[in-house]
Design brief:
With 311 residues, the protein is mainly α. It contains 13 helices and no strands.
């Protein structure tokens, strides 16, 4: 395990470095100038130039990039251009809500995807599973969110239509606010996990040792629990790690639907106002979380499958 981690770390750091360069460059290629936005529509060239000098945007791009990397390594993310306040405080204020939403959605992905995948073995059940998962994948999240609000908030009046209350502060009320956005975020990923787990289980059921165990009279439930499922879990764990990145990306849209005060709203404000420090730090944070999750997924996969450790 330690040798696997040692081999993965250099590539993970390289990915972060390349991602930081790509994020920095792409933001500078987007039309619009933060200095012009901050100076106002009636500002003259001298006022715009003064704002650019104050923000450090008059420096060459390599100098700006190296300065940003230095700030990241020292932990000083600097102030926001347009939103106001230190970037560290802005990200910290929204990070808890986004993590809460992502973790809630992840629990629902596992709670829905694993039973559906295991129940989808067989011809008829497999056809129903494919129909259900295709429907969940085809419907956009904003449509799913609207349907959930109309049914559970407007029609049945069981859950709030939007807003946020921390689960840590008030668990009973916080769960009510969390359930609809987490379910909206989790449904497509649960469909992917269920379909992939079902294919892995069907592949394992077609092996010779399963047919031999069946011929010897071993109950099917025991074969599934003690032999098939352990062989199908490692690939499913890898897929689940990939789905976490999808959950982080989808949280931006879901937060806008349910007025969830997380990093998605902060990213939207930063993009609209050309707030470079906020947007580039947020994007790099998401990449870092995704890389860390993939690294953790590789370790769990190696723990579940000894062949990975031997290799």
């Amino acid at each position: 395990m330690r040798s696997l981690l040692t081999r993965r770390l250099p590539s993970a750091l390289l990915v972060l470095l390349l991602a930081s360069f790509a994020i920095f460059l792409i933001l500078r290629l987007i039309p619009g100038d933060p200095a012009t936005t901050l100076a106002g529509p009636d500002a003259g060239p001298e006022a715009v130039a003064a704002v650019r000098a104050r923000l450090g945007l008059d420096q060459p791009l390599p100098a700006q990039y190296l300065g940003w990397l230095t700030d990241l390594l020292t932990g000083d993310l600097g102030p926001s251009y347009a939103i106001g306040g230190p970037v560290t405080d802005l990200i910290g204020n929204g990070l808890g809500a986004t993590v809460e939403l992502t973790l809630g959605a992840l629990l629902l992905v596992v709670a829905l995807g694993v039973p559906l995948g295991l129940a989808g073995t067989g011809i008829r059940a497999g056809a129903l599973l494919r129909l259900l998962t295709s429907l969940l994948l085809a419907v956009p999240p904003y449509v799913t969110g609207l349907v959930l609000v109309l049914v559970f908030a407007v029609g049945l009046r069981l859950l709030p239509a939007g807003g946020h209350q921390s689960v840590l502060d008030q668990p009973d009320i916080g769960l009510q606010y969390l359930l609809l956005p987490a379910l909206c975020l989790a449904l497509p990923s649960a469909a992917v996990l269920a379909r992939y787990l079902r294919d892995s289980v069907d592949q394992a059921l077609g092996e010779d040792w399963v047919r031999t165990a069946t011929a010897l009279g071993v109950p099917r439930r025991r074969i599934l629990r003690r032999h098939v499922l352990p062989n199908a879990l490692p690939p499913a764990v890898t897929v689940l790690g990939l789905l976490i990145g999808q959950l982080l990306g989808g949280a931006v849209l879901v937060e806008a639907i349910f007025a969830w005060p997380g990093l998605g709203q902060l990213a939207e404000q930063g993009v609209l106002r050309r707030d470079y420090p906020v947007v580039q730090d947020l994007l790099l944070l998401l990449v870092a979380v995704y890389v860390a999750v993939q690294l953790l997924t590789d370790l769990v996969h190696a723990w579940l499958d000894p062949r990975i450790r031997w290799e």
